[in-house]
Amino acid sequence: MSNLVQDCIFCKIIRNEIPAYTVFENDDVKAFLDISQVTKGHVLIIPKKHLINFFDYSQEDAAKYLQYIPKIAQAIKASDKNIKGLNVFVNNGEIAGQVVMHSHIHLVPRYDENDGVNVPHINHAAEYTPEAYQEVANTIKQHLS
C-alpha cells in the first residue's frame, strides 16, 4: 500500500480504519459497496495507491488498476439474475462530480428502465461541421505523448 494520504476517506478504508463492505481486494485494488447504493449492488473500485483521478494515472497505473473492472462487473451481474446492464462511471475533478479526491470507479447495476438512474445524453452534433470535428481531434492528438 503505497502513497496513502492520512485524511483521505478511501485511504482510511484501504487501511481498514473505516469499515467497508468489501467484495474484492488484492495488493492493487479494493472494491466495496458504495454506501449510497444508487442501485442494489453499486460497487466502487479504488486503487491502493492514492491517485486523485485519471489525470494522475500513468499508463502503468491504468494497466495495473483498471484491469479488474471486467472481473468485478461480471461478478456483480452474476450476483443477481435481475441485473440487465451496468453503468460504469468515473468522475474526474469537482466540476465532473467527483466528491472524494481519490480515484474511484462506480459500477452501477441496472435492473430496469425505471430504476431512477438518469444518465444524461446531450447531442451537440448539429453545432459541428466536419472541419470543426477535425480541428478538435487534431488538437487532442497534438497532446498525446
TrEMBL record:
Keywords tagged on the record: Hydrolase
This enzyme's EC code(s): 3.6.1.17
Annotated InterPro entries: HINT, Histidine_triad_CS, Histidine_triad_HIT, HIT-like, HIT-like_sf
GO biological process, one term: nucleotide metabolic process
This protein's record includes keyword rRNA processing: no
Motif (Histidine triad motif): 102-106
UniProt key word Lipoprotein: no
Location of the HIT domain: 9-118
Superkingdom of the organism of origin: Bacteria
Top-level class of the enzyme under EC nomenclature: hydrolase
Active site: H104
Pfam families listed in its UniProt record: HIT (PF01230)
First and last residue of the signal peptide: none
Single GO MF descriptor: bis(5'-nucleosyl)-tetraphosphatase (asymmetrical) activity
Xref: PANTHER family: ADENOSINE 5'-MONOPHOSPHORAMIDASE HNT1 (PTHR46648:SF1), HIT FAMILY PROTEIN 1 (PTHR46648)
Name used for this protein in its record: Histidine triad domain protein
